[in-house]
Amino acid sequence: MGKLVSPAEAAARIRDGAVVTVSSSSALGCPDRVLQAIGERFRDTGHPRNITTIHPIAAGDMYGVKGMDHIAQEGLLARVIAGSYPSGPSNLPMPAIWKMIVDDAIPAYNVPSGILFDMHRDVAARRPGVLTKVGLDTFVDPKREGCAMNARGAAAPIVQRAEFGGETWLHFPNIAPDVCILRATTADERGNLTYEHEGAYLGGLDQAIATRNHGGLVIAQVKRMTAYGSLRPHTVRVPGHLIDLVVLDPDQKQTTETPYDPAISGEVMRPWSSFEPAPHGIEKVIARRAAMELREGMTANLGFGISAMVPYVLLEEGHAQSVTWAIEQGAVGGMPLTGFAFGCASNADAYVPSPNQFTYFQGGGFDMSFLSFLEVDVEGNVNVSKLGKKPYLTAGCGGFVDITAHARKIVFSGWFEAGADIALGPDGVKVLKPGKFTKMVDKVEHVTFSGARARAQGQEVLYVTERCVIALRPEGLVAVEIMPGIDPARDIVAASHGRVTIAANARVMPHSLLAEGPTGWSPGSKS
C-alpha cells in the first residue's frame, strides 16, 4: 500500500503558495480529515503559507464538519474562490472563513459552481480559459461585482468581459491547480477509487485530471482500503494513475449529521410510503401552488428552501414518480431530500458527475426550475446570494446562476414580507399584522438572477408567494393570481409600496391549496 499515508504526511506534501482544489458539497464528499491536517500543520510549523483554495461547492458545514474553517487561518489562506460557502442559522457563530471575508483579510470570490467545473475542464485541456454567457448582467459580470465578495477581491479581478464572434461573453482565465483533495469510499492498493457509500460523485475526477495535467499532487481521502484487483472496473470512478496519496478516515460522514444512510448511496431503495409529507402550513401552500406548474414526464431542477418541498407535494398527491428531479450534486430521479441531507436523494435513478450535470443545466435541457428568493426588485432581479448584515445566512450562489442562465421556465418561491403575522385557515390566508419589510424592493442587494436578461431571452418567470403569484412582464412585476383571503390593494400593492401591480384579469387561486390533506391535484400530461 505504497500510496497510503497519514493525514499529516499528506499535508506535509503541500508547498507554500500552492493552488489547492477541493471536491466537496458541504459535508457531502468533504475530505475533512485532510483539511484538518493542513490546518494543524500550519499551526505547528507555519506551513503551508499563502495557499489559494478553489471549491466548486462548499467544503464543510456549521454542524460539525469544519471543512474550509480548518484552513481559514491568517498566513495559511491567501485567497479563496468558491461556488458556495458554509451557511447556517443566525444563532450559530459566524464561520471563520466568513470572518476572513467580512474583515477583508483575503481576496474572496463567489463564482458559479458550474463555471468553476468548466474552469477545471478547460485548464486540464490547456484551452484559454472559460468563455461563457452564464452570469451576464448578474453579480458575476464585471459591470457589477465581477464575483468579488470584498474589497480585496474587487482589487484583483478574476473575470473580464470579452467580445467574440460579434457577441459579449464572460472570460475566466485559467487557474491551474497544484493540489487536488477529493474523497471517495474505497481505494485499492494502486489508488483506484470507488464511491459506493457516497451520495454523489461531485467533480473529483475532473479536478484530479486538471491537477495531474499540470504536474500537481492528488490526495484522496477514503473510508477503507482493499486489495488491488478486487474492485470492478465499472465501479471505479477515479482511476489510480491519477492518485498520488491515499488517506484513511473510517469515520467520515456521508453528509451533514449523517454517518451513513444506505438509501442516499443507492444501496437500498426506501419504500415510497416511508417518506413523510411536508407539514401543513403557509410554506406548503406556496409549494403546492408552485407544483401546479408541473406536468407528468417533465424533468425539473430543484433548489433549497421552500422549493425543496415541491417533490413532497407530489408525494402526498400520489405522483411522486411523475417528474424526474435533477439536482446539482448529481442525483437524477428519486426523492430529493430536505434539511441537513439537502443535495442528496433517496431512490435515485442515477448519479451523474456534477460537471456533467452543470453542462445539462447551463444549456437549458430541463423543462423547469424551482428555486427560492431572498428578495425581488422592480426589474425582476432576484437575490439569493448576499445578506450584508449576516452574510453566512446564505451560502452564496452555488449553482443558481448556472441553472437560471438558460432555463426555459423558472418558478421562484418565497415570502412576500418578512416577519408578518399570517393566519392560515380553510377560507384563506389572512395578514393579521404587516411584516417588518417587504421582499419586493426597488433594488436588490445582489443580482443573482437578471430580470432584464430573462425578458430578453424570452424566459418564463413566476414568483410564488403566500399572497399571490407574480409574473415577470415587460411592465414589471404583475400579480396574476391572488391567494384566497388576501386583499390585493392592501396586502400586495400597498405592502410592496406599489412595486407589484395587479393584472386586470387576475384570478383567485384554488381553495384546495389550503387543505390539510391531499387536494386531489394531478400534474396532467406534458404538452
From TrEMBL:
<dbReference type="GO" id="GO:0046952">
    <property type="term" value="P:ketone body catabolic process"/>
</dbReference>
<dbReference type="InterPro" id="IPR037171">
    <property type="entry name" value="NagB/RpiA_transferase-like"/>
</dbReference>
<dbReference type="InterPro" id="IPR014388">
    <property type="entry name" value="3-oxoacid_CoA-transferase"/>
</dbReference>
<feature type="active site" description="5-glutamyl coenzyme A thioester intermediate">
    <location>
        <position position="328"/>
    </location>
</feature>
<keyword id="KW-0808">Transferase</keyword>
<comment type="function">
    <text>CoA transferase having broad substrate specificity for short-chain acyl-CoA thioesters with the activity decreasing when the length of the carboxylic acid chain exceeds four carbons.</text>
</comment>
<dbReference type="InterPro" id="IPR004165">
    <property type="entry name" value="CoA_trans_fam_I"/>
</dbReference>
<dbReference type="GO" id="GO:0008775">
    <property type="term" value="F:acetate CoA-transferase activity"/>
</dbReference>
<dbReference type="Pfam" id="PF01144">
    <property type="entry name" value="CoA_trans"/>
</dbReference>
<protein>
    <recommendedName>
        <fullName>Acetate CoA-transferase YdiF</fullName>
        <ecNumber>2.8.3.8</ecNumber>
    </recommendedName>
</protein>
<comment type="similarity">
    <text>Belongs to the 3-oxoacid CoA-transferase family.</text>
</comment>
